[in-house]
Amino acid sequence: MRLKVPPVAVFAVAAILLYAGAWLLPQSSLVFPGQTFLSLFLAFAGLIPGGRAVLAFARKKTTVNPMAPEKATVLVTGGIYRISRNPMYLGLLCLLLALAVYWGSLTALVIVPAFVWYMTEFQIKPEEEALTALFGDAYKDYCTRVRRWI
Questions:
Q1: 35 near 99, Cβ under 8 Å?
Q2: 67: exposed, middle or buried (C-beta count within 10 Å: 0-12, 13-18, 19+)?
Q3: Is 80 helix (H, G, I), strand (E, B) or coil?
Q4: Max alpha carbon distance in the chain (Å)?
Q5: Fewer Cβ close by (within 10 Å): the C or N end of the chain?
Q6: Each residue's pLDDT tens digit, 14-58
Q7: Cβ-count burial of 99 within 10 angstroms (0-12 exposed, 13-18 middle, 19+ buried)?
Q8: What confidence score (pLDDT) does residue 28 get?
Q9: What's the predicted TM-score (pTM) here?
Q10: How far apart are CA 8 and CA 132, in angstroms?
């Protein structure tokens, strides 16, 4: 499973499961004041780091293809990458949380941690191995300064 499923597909499956949980188990859904506002806030909180990360890669002219980290040509450590080593995945996580809040789905208590676990084990760790092979001590040093998620 390592680097086999595109992260956007993992996000889509998790979002479908959240929706299915809200639809199939309406008794396990919450409704609260400010729910829509909070979901919009989380969505923007996800779009900002994700968008900034993609722009940073584009500026450095390196690949954004998460299925082929070995094709990276530059180690990007500035901008949003000073805060998180994985702002694109952090963005997807925030978008997933936004959907969970919007639908009020308590299934998020299972699906969101499963998303984080899957992304860490099958996407992030293999990427880290590839980047260590490519950039060696520079990447290891970066990893000591910046956390994996946030």
A1: no
A2: middle
A3: helix
A4: 52
A5: N
A6: 999 999 999 999 888 899 999 999 999 999 999 999 999 999 999
A7: buried
A8: 84
A9: 0.95
A10: 24
Taking alpha carbons only, the member of 118, 119, 122, 89 closest to residue 2 is: 122
H helix and E strand count, the chain:
6, 0
Residue of 12, 14, 22, 4 lying closest to 102 (CA atoms): 22
Q: Which two tokens stand for residue 111?
A: 């699906």
CA–CA separation, 97 vs 18, rounded Å?
10
Place of tokens 């584009």: 58
Phi first, then psi, for residue 84 (nearest 5°) are: -145, 140
**Residue 113: CB partners within 8 Å, gap ≥ 6?**
none
Q: What is the DSSP letter of 105?
A: B
Within 10 A of 145 (CB to CB), how many other CB atoms are there? 9
pLDDT recorded at residue 4: 87
Q: Using CA atoms, how far apart are residues 11 and 111, in angstroms rounded to an integer?
A: 10
